[in-house]
Amino acid sequence: MERIERVAFIGLGIMGSRMAANLCRAGFEVHAFNRTRARSEELAERHGAHVADTPREAAAAAQATVTMVVDSPDVEQVLLGEDGAAHGMSAGHLAIDCSTISPEASRSIGARLRERGVGFLDAPVTGSSPRAEDGTLTIMVGGERADYERALPVLEAMGLLVVYAGPQGQGSMVKLINNAVAAANAAALAEALVLAERAGVDTDALVRVMAAGSGDSAMLALKARPMLERDFSPLFKLDHMLKDVRHTLAAARAAGVELPLGERIERLYAEASERGHGSDDFAAVVEALDREMRPISR
Ligand code: NAP
To answer: Which residues participate in catalysis according to the annotation?
Structure first.
């Protein structure tokens, strides 16, 4: 199989814009498509990417296509819909989906692409925008091992830890389980911080102690300050976290398992979303806890 030198990149949002920039920096010829064209023009100006008018045009100029959109229907649309990338791919092309979608959708899209002689990897990422920016994402990959090995130079330009997770759909599955834990951690942290505020605790002291001990977590490092300051500038939108928790619940049901904690977490994030925080950072789950933690009458 020929080495991948030309990459189509579809979806230049918070994550995709930074990941595509790293592909440009690593020397790949990048053909970018974004629904809102200004973002691909910015990538072209700042990093020398080529702007494509459609996903199909981007893929036709490349040997591999990376998608970084939002959910399963979006990936289907940009790959297999009208003017979708699949229509520009010839046999031997490799599609790499980095969005977080359902494992079932990953398997179905993979099967449809394989009918065209196109390889497909579900390769979601974790690490949020700072690690997308400096190319140190963790990337978990499901699909054929040979496709994974061929994709490695592309993935290593965007990530520091790249892990092969097994057959198609298992990258998505690993990602969902990871995010269910992150969503629960963030909710537990939010509850702790609201308790501290209500009990008059010095929250700086609390955070310093937690960071040095058993209360430490990636969520503490990333979300304690935004939660305390109620600064919800989006690094990872709350609605995207809610999507991931819902996919985890569905994947658990498909595996015949109930997730009691997952169900509770889903309701918290759904409540925050219903109250208008869907496009805010998921640190805004603190607002849902703030409302639910009513004073106990004594
Ligand atoms: P985002 O900022 O909302 O960007 C989404 C991108 O997808 C935008 O470029 C958007 O185009 C494009 N898009 C969405 N639906 C589309 C459609 N139907 N057709 C064409 N383009 C479409 O999201 P993000 O934070 O980069 O996240 C992208 C994916 O990575 C999601 O699956 C998310 O769960 C996952 N993820 C995010 C993070 C994080 O920390 N942010 C971390 C790990 C994984 P427009 O510009 O036109 O809107």
So the answer is: 175
